[in-house]
Structure formats: C-alpha cells, structure tokens
Amino acid sequence: MLINPKRILVLGGTGFVGRHLVAQLSAHLHAITVPTRRLPARHLQMLPGVSLVQADVNDPRQLQHLVRGHDVVVNLVAILHGHAEAFEQIHAQLPAQLARACQQAGVSRIVHVSALGASPTGSSMYQRSKARGEAALHSAAQTHSLGVTILRPSVIFGKDDAFINLFARLQRFFPVMPLAGAATRFQPVWVGDVAQALVHAIETPTTAGQVFEACGSEVFTLRELVGIAGRWQGRTRPVIPLPEWMGQLQALALEWAPGPTLMSRDNLASMRQDNVSGGRLPGLSALGIGTPTRIGQIFPPRD
To answer: For residue 40, what are the CA distances in angstroms to 34, 36, 300?
Structure first.
C-alpha cells in the first residue's frame, strides 16, 4: 500500500494511454481527477479514487481552476491529425498554459508525454509542435522551479489501440495493402509499460528535470507491423510499398475521406525518419520497467 497517496490531475485521462494510467493510479490508491468534455465516462467512473469533472482544458480559466489542490499534473493530451493551428494549440500552447496555471496554483510537478522524434527541425508539424511544447515546459522549469518529467514514447500498442487494430481491420476487407512509409522503422512500446513508467515518474520526485525515451525492446518496419496485425487477426494481405509521391496522393485522399482520418500527409512526413531510440537518453529501465513487453505477447499470431 502506498504510504503517501497523491492528488493527481490527469489531462487526457479518457484516452488510450489515459485509461490505462488512471487504472494503475487507482490501484496505487491515489486520488485522481480526470477532466472530460463529455460525461459520463463509465469505464473510469467505477474506479476507486477517480473523480470525473466536465471541463475544457484548453480554456485557460478552467485549466487554472482544475490544477488547484493537486500535487502532480499529468498531460497526455495530443492529436495525430490536424492543421497547423490545431497542432500549435494542443501540443505547444496547452503545455505553456499548464505551466502558468501550475505556477499560479502552487503545483510543483508536471509529468508530460511528448513523442519520440520531437524536434524543432522535424519533418512534420506534429514533431515540431511537440518540441515547442517541451521547450515551453523546460523554460517554465528553469524560471519557476517547476519539476517537469517528460516521456517520449514510440508508437504505443495495446489490445484497445488504434494502430495494430487498424491494420488488422483493413486486412479483413482489402486483398492487398498499399503502404506508404513501409520501410520506416519503429520501436513499439506496450501501453501497460507506458502507464507503469508514468506511475513511477509520478511517485519518484527525482525524475523531475529528466527526459526519458519510452521504447520497447524490438524494432520493426511498418511493413513488418502490418504483417503482425494480419497474422494476429488470421488474414495477412500482401503489402505493396508506395513511393513518396504516390504515398502523398494516398494520404491526401485519406484526409478528404469521410470518417476518422486514417493517414495524413503530416503523418507521412513524420515517417521520413525512423522512430527508434537514439540511445542518448534514459529509457524504460530507468522508470522501473526491467523487461518491456514484446508485441507478440499482446498480439500473438492465430493458428
């Protein structure tokens, strides 16, 4: 049992990573507040110690009110698709607003999930906006004595993810898989390991001031990950790698297609660089994860 339970605000707590994190924090007997635009969120309401609050975290006044009375704020809010203004608002302005709100409310700890590949010179709006968010938090840490811990995960997988499951569904209906960025390398990490690493960061004040890479122990090309998805759902389709110009046309068509965006030109730009650990920053082992979960343990092939 945890000796010193904390009051923790989790922004993005209803999302993929957030649901797993909140469940682990609840098991550790922390008191967790989860803002959401829409109530109810029944998958979280039943967890001990969890309070759901209807709020818009992008509203600075509401955000300032939310952070009051908490020991730690975790920021998981992110988007994969959007225009430049949306990336700027979610990935850069929100962390800056959060740092100001914490300073005004006397909250001294922020744990922030960024992204592997975040860089001011990145190929995509996603990567560059993630880097600006990190820079805003680093600046606040230096000027206002704010303890900031940053995680940079590679692609995150899990039984309820929108990555492996997407490629599994597509292979049920299409005879072939035309694939842009097929040779791009990823180092996927299990959502349970990410959640456990975040709990460790929250409960370990000495992680403040550090940036960690959250990567698994295996490296795959996108083509290989599509194959894993196909074998898991029992129907593997041939992959046809697309050249850059054709991938751009495919991404443009998918941007305009009805329903949720499956791929965008900005996603394709992100895949111009491999999404693997650089080896210069501490990894999951420094956050209490001795042996990262392998993707085959979660998505075993079907006979």
So the answer is: 11, 9, 34
Per-residue pLDDT tens over the stretch 50-97: 999 999 999 999 999 999 999 999 999 999 999 999 999 999 999 999
CA distance 277 to 239: 26
In this prediction the pTM is 0.95
| Span between the terminal Cα atoms of the chain, in Å | 42
Residues sharing a CB contact under 8 Å with residue 269, sequence separation 6 or more, in sequence order: 123, 124, 125
Query: Six-digit token pair at 94?
Result: 């929100």
160-184 pLDDT, tens digit each: 999 999 999 999 888 999 999 999 9
In 3D space, the residue among 112, 158, 151 whose CA is nearest the CA of residue 293 turns out to be 158
Distance (Å, whole) CA 284 – CA 264: 30
In terms of CATH architecture, what is 7-156+187-215+276-292? 3-Layer(aba) Sandwich (3.40)
CB under 8 Å to 65, separation ≥6 — which residues? 55
Cis ω for the linkage preceding 205 (within 30 of 0): no
Q: What are phi and psi of 110, to 5 degrees?
A: -130, 130
3-class DSSP assignment, residue 179: strand
Mean of pLDDT values over 122-142: 97
Quick one: pLDDT at residue 231? 95
Residues forming a β-bridge with 213: 152
